[in-house]
Amino acid sequence: KYAVTFREYDTFCSATGRGESDDEGWGRGRRPMIWMIWNDAIGYCNWLSEKEGIANAYDSDGNLLDRNGNRTTDIMKVEGYRLPTEAEWENAARGGQNTKGYKYAGSDDLNEVGWYDDNSDEQTHPVGEKKGNELGLYDMSGNVVEWCHDWYGDYASTTQTNPTGPSSGARRVYRGGGWDYNEPFCRAAFRYSSAPASSGSDLGFRVVRTVF
User: Fold this and answer.
1) Strand 145-151 vs strand 172-175: parallel, antiparallel, or unpaired?
2) What are the DSSP E strand ranges found in the chain?
3) Termini Cα distance of the chain
4) What pLDDT digit, counting tens, does each position of 18-46 carry?
5) Which has the closest alpha carbon to 36: 25, 23, 46, 48?
6) pTM of the shown model
7) To 10 degrees, what angle do helices 38-51 and 6-16 make?
8) Rg (CA), the chain
9) Nearest to 166 by CA among 66, 69, 62, 67
10) Sign of the CA dihedral running 178, 181, 185, 186
11) Quick count: other Cβ atoms within 10 Å of Cβ 21?
């Protein structure tokens, strides 16, 4: 229900011998992880899966894997921890089956649910300090933008169920708005994309799993 925190990611770094990421002097602990490139985010996902004894969600090229380790585009066959698809992310941000149609994730007033340029004091804040949305998910509007699984592309012209985005591309999707974003850019509907090797002091991620 929260973005991955420094405390969680630092445990991963310690276990795997990776260098720790810069916290900009704001503090670590329960603040959301920042300066995340896409490949490091999926590396954390796979480490978490291995730690819990379940199948990895990704191969070394970032392709989805099913429970038998075979490549798949069917998100319902992926057992391990992974990044949400763009469709999953937006559905969750909007409250899923409990949605009340808010502009932001949990409210029409961003101050209730998110840290953004008007209230953040130019830094991230520990996760869960604002109100959660209809599903009890926190910080999906503001604080940090979050990597999604999908390559960026135009939406399909036909109805899709559980889409996973284009099969290839140059940029990955991220969603949600960050501590330095204006209000309109924190809307649940707003899309962003960047090269997978991009990172920033406002870019983090959260993990999900398929329910079987």
Assistant:
1) antiparallel
2) 145-151, 172-175, 191-194, 203-204
3) 19
4) 999 999 999 999 999 999 999 999 999 99
5) 23
6) 0.96
7) 80
8) 16
9) 62
10) positive
11) 20
